[in-house]
Amino acid sequence: MDKHQWESRLCHISGRVGFVIIVALIILPSVWLRDLSILSYVSATGFLAYVVVIGSVLWTGANDGYNEKGRTLNLSRIATAFSLYTFCYSAHPVFPTLYTSMRDKSKFNKVLLLCYAVCTAGYTSMAILGYLMYGEHVNTQVTLNLPV
To answer: How far apart are CA 134 and CA 62, in angstroms?
Structure first.
């Protein structure tokens, strides 16, 4: 078999797909854990990613400018916006596990309020930044509009 035939048989994986596969292989063993307190580290990395994405969008807007215009209310895309917000607030199945793993269960309501406040602030800031940067041309995920 010559070199060309060998290369045509290889599977080519792009950088983005390769990254997703690697992250999945790293996170996958967490579903088999007996002690769920270790998942707090996975959660912390998720929060770090959340901060990095908001920072990236803010940085891109600061460098490229907030100069797009468009309609403030586009009723034809309201279903997409509603489904995105619904998905973002769908973490309620984890609440019983969170409650049972807390040392001081009396602080559960405060933790819940803080989590929803932080998430709402992040979602709202991303929506505002995305609209200011890309106007009507913003994708459902503003990160898809960012330069490579």
So the answer is: 13
Burial 79-90, CB ≥16 within 10 A → b, else e: eeeeeeeeeeee
Q: Is residue 20 part of a domain?
A: no
Please report whether residue 77 resides in a domain. yes
- Write out the chain's pLDDT in tens, 148 residues: 566 665 555 667 777 778 888 888 887 887 777 766 777 777 788 889 888 888 888 888 888 777 777 777 778 878 887 887 788 887 777 788 778 878 899 999 998 899 889 888 888 888 888 888 887 777 767 777 777 6
In-domain check, residue 109: yes
CA torsion 96→99→101→105, rounded to 10°? -160
Task: Please identify which residue in the block is written with the tokens 């907030």.
Answer: 66
Which residue range forms the structural domain that includes residue 77?
Answer: 67-135
Residues 57 and 142 sit within 8 Å (Cβ to Cβ)? yes
